[in-house]
Amino acid sequence: MRVLFTTFPWHSHHFPMVPIEQACLAAGHEVRVASTPALQPIAAASGLPFVPVGRDVNLAALSNDRSRAAWHRQERWPQDWPIHPELLNDDQFAMIENLGRMQAVMADAMLDDLLEYARAWRPDLVVHDAVTLAGPVVASALGIPSVSHLWGTPGPQRIEMRRFGSEPIPEYAALYERVGAPLRAEPTAWLDPCAPGTRYEIGPTCRQVRYVPYNGPGVMPLWPLEPRRGTRICVTWGATSTALRGDSVLDLVSQCIRAATSMADEVVVAVTDRAVEGLKPVLADDRVRLATNLPLHLFMGTCDLVVHHGGAGTSLTAALAGVPQLAITARPEPSVNGARLAAAGAAQHFLTHEVPAGEDGVRLLRGEIAELMGFPGYRSAARELAQGILAQPTPAATVAELESVARGGQLLPSAVPLVHH
Amino acid sequence: MRVLVVTSPWPTHYFVMQPLAGAFRAAGHEVLIAAQASMSDLVTRSGLPMVAIDGDVDLVGIRRRTLSRELQAREKPAQAAGGEGNEVFDSWREATLSNLDSVVEFASAWLPDLIVADTMSPAGLVAARVLGIPGIRHLWGWDFLGSVEGEKLLSALPGFYEPYERYGLKVTGDPATRTVDPCPPSLQPPGSPTRISMQYVPYNGPGSVPSGLPPRAEGRPRICLTWGRSITRIIGDKAFLLPQIIRAVDGIDADFVVAIDPADRDGLGELPPNVVALDAPPLHLLLDTCDAIVHQGGSGTVYNAIRYGLPQLAITHMADQDNISAALEKSGAGIHLRSEEATAEAIRRAVARLVDDSGIAHAAARLRAEMLSQPAPAQVVAELEQLAASASRPRD
């Protein structure tokens, strides 16, 4: 079959789809990965055939515009809000719909080219990142099934639907009108790579798929295979948060590194090249090992703890390695990752503004690190998360589900009852 | 489980293994590609992580050095196979074994459950023997290793078992547990029982679907012209036949797309209006919009063309190209010209047949169907998983 994958041009939404894309190729299917040109180097480096469509949109600027800036500094939202939208207030909904409008702008920039390419290439199936709204529009226009692929944050995250309900926001509906296609309010099926221990139930049209880390290209160094000097903590800050928030996150990362170096024999700092510049003073500590451009999964299993920003890829890579986590998050979406990991007993979770500036913050983080490293319950909860992930069908095994959806518009009959955690 | 894939510094050897490596990853296994540092850009931009292995082998340089013997062997293959003081075999050992200790050392530290190695990476098979795990040879193209005949030849080569003896291993017969072969079986000599047939899945390096292709004219065939780089790197510019091919097809009622490395673009000169040149996109992303192809007879190119059911004309210079191209011609799906036969008139006649001769088109469709009926890499992974699970593996 021919499977057209599409995502908006953001690595943290492309990376989680790479394994299922590789799996389709490995099963002998034809695959294309479409996004705007900005994804070209990232998609091509992941070994996948890329189709550039539409024009790039400055997402960082859109995300930080005045109406959306508050998204980056939120108080704690109600517990389990992704599946209990009734708990959200009007401001919080306004913010979510704002994100929906941002993705509609993105979809608008992709739609014409994507549709033109799809009409010429004639896929049997569209698999789209869950918030990449051009995907379902094109599938609807072609009259073929569409599968919504979650990126590892628990919950369906339907930012394009008013109050997570059945009514689309006008900007989303307008995309369908523009190409004369009927609204597709529900994807034909969902794929969810979340850990069973942290995910939210999506429903009978969803299949869980084992998270397989793809963290970008890299050459494995030999140090992860060598005996450790003692305890090892990884401090990593995702490329997304540094790209969206620039240098404003560096103070916090510095605090984390300082706290970690005072608590462990070795601290692996995995950040972007750009962040290294701003972190120079704290990186001078001889316990620090710098790991830029190194895929996390190549060394995560050798760490006792990982301190991070709550990105889905980092959270799941650590969960798969059975490593306890300290997540310090800003936006509501990574905060869901942190909160769910904490609820599973495998992590502690803070919001960025809950960590005071300067020494006070370092002291607080040191206390949390001592707790996470000292109490074995975190490690066993983390291992349970890992076992849950490993028990799920692999991307390779999930190809049969996609074949079924492409053939008859339905998933395979579910043989195993869904396990609730 | 952990899978170590050892590749020689020959890009096409890696490209043909990449889909199996990706298939292991998609099945949830840990995968590392072991290659010399000069390959790091090529490997890391293929979606898989790499570990750098010592060594800086210049395969092209070695082949240049042995070119005259290789060309001699092309004329008299029987004389060249085996025998003492075989210069080509000595060079082969030089080309393939300089990384031996480094591969064994890394494998002993990382402890894979299975090793896959291309034909030019026997160190991977040695490492598998050292660890007591399955060692899988992955063929890159037309290759009789993995055939009944090939097994006999290997064990007769002087010094073939030396690298095993170096590690105190007594090995007889074929050291590979299995040989994975992406060639459609009808093009290969009969396989030994350890040969695993695998569907060729195209991977031709990173890239995008080509832009700048003019829309297809209704009822007018589009023919791809391409020329591998290895052949000119080994033999020199005289083996770069694209300019002659373009002149030879002048006047044929078809559109031609030349997929060419930007560095070679100037060598083409001015192009007729029905010929466009593209900065070489990954070949398969171009071929699915073409009706036929003319190329240098590289196995990877032949497999790509088979995958899309294209009639092909192969114009060859070296023995490995001759072998696959002769097999292709025998199947009826293509035409083979050795370079010395490739006059302008012969090329012109052959290209005209590619688009007019329905017999070739039918045979190409048959060959495509045969390829698609071979087990996909995902299925081969399942078979190799079982093999690894049943192998007794001494640990610590």
Labels describing this entry:
heterodimer; A: 421 residues; alpha/beta; Rossmann fold; 7-stranded parallel sheet; 6-stranded parallel sheet; 15 helices; 41% helix; B: 396 residues; 16% strand; globular
Describe the protein's architecture and organization.
- The complex is a heterodimer of chains A (421) and B (396).
- Chain A is an alpha/beta fold and 421 residues long.
- Chain A has 2 domains: 227 residues, Glycogen Phosphorylase B (Rossmann fold, 3-Layer(aba) Sandwich), CATH 3.40.50; 166 residues, Glycogen Phosphorylase B (Rossmann fold), CATH 3.40.50.
- Chain A has 15 helices and 14 strands.
- In chain A, strand 12, helix 11 and strand 13 form a beta-alpha-beta unit.
- In chain A, helix 5 crosses helix 6 and helix 5 runs parallel beside helix 7.
- The radius of gyration of chain A is 21 Å and the shape is globular.
- Chain B has 396 residues and is an alpha/beta fold.
- Chain B has 2 domains: 176 residues, Rossmann fold (3-Layer(aba) Sandwich), CATH 3.40.50; 152 residues, Glycogen Phosphorylase B (Rossmann fold, 3-Layer(aba) Sandwich).
- In chain B, helix 15 links the parallel strand 12 and strand 13.
- The mean pLDDT of chain B is 90.
- At the A-B interface, helix 2, helix 3, strand 3, strand 8 and helix 15 of A face helix 1, strand 3, helix 7 and helix 18 of B.
Helix/strand layout:
The complex is a heterodimer of chains A (421) and B (396).
Chain A: E1 2-6, H1 11-14, H2 18-26, E2 30-35, H3 40-45, E3 50-52, H4 59-64, H5 90-121, E4 125-129, H6 134-142, E5 146-149, H7 170-179, E6 189-192, E7 206-208, E8 219-220, E9 232-236, H8 239-245, H9 250-261, E10 266-270, H10 273-283, E11 288-290, E12 305-308, H11 312-321, E13 325-329, H12 332-343, E14 347-351, H13 358-374, H14 376-390, H15 395-408
Parallel strand pairs in A: 1-2, 1-4, 2-3, 4-5, 5-6, 6-7, 9-10, 9-12, 10-11, 12-13, 13-14
Chain B: E1 2-6, H1 11-26, E2 30-36, H2 40-44, E3 50-53, H3 59-65, H4 67-75, H5 77-80, H6 87-97, H7 100-110, E4 114-118, H8 122-131, E5 135-138, H9 148-156, H10 162-166, E6 178-181, E7 195-197, E8 222-226, H11 229-235, H12 242-248, E9 255-260, E10 275-279, H13 283-287, E11 292-295, H14 299-307, E12 312-316, H15 319-331, E13 334-338, H16 344-356, H17 358-373, H18 377-390
Parallel strand pairs in B: 1-2, 1-4, 2-3, 4-5, 5-6, 6-7, 8-9, 8-11, 9-10, 11-12, 12-13
Helix pairs in contact in B: 1-18, 3-11, 7-8, 12-16
Domain Erythromycin biosynthesis protein CIII-like C-terminal (chain A): 258-403
Keywords (chain A): Glycosyltransferase, Transferase
Domain Erythromycin biosynthesis protein CIII-like N-terminal (chain A): 22-238
